[in-house]
Amino acid sequence: MNTERKLFEIIAGPCKDMMFDACKYAYSKTARIPIDFTVIVGYTRSKDAPGAASIPIKIGDIKIASIQHEDGSGESFNLEGFCKASINDDYRACSFEAYYDTRSRKGVISFND
Question: Of 27, 89, 98, 102, which residue is the least packed, with the fewest Cβ within 10 Å?
Answer without folding.
Answer: 89
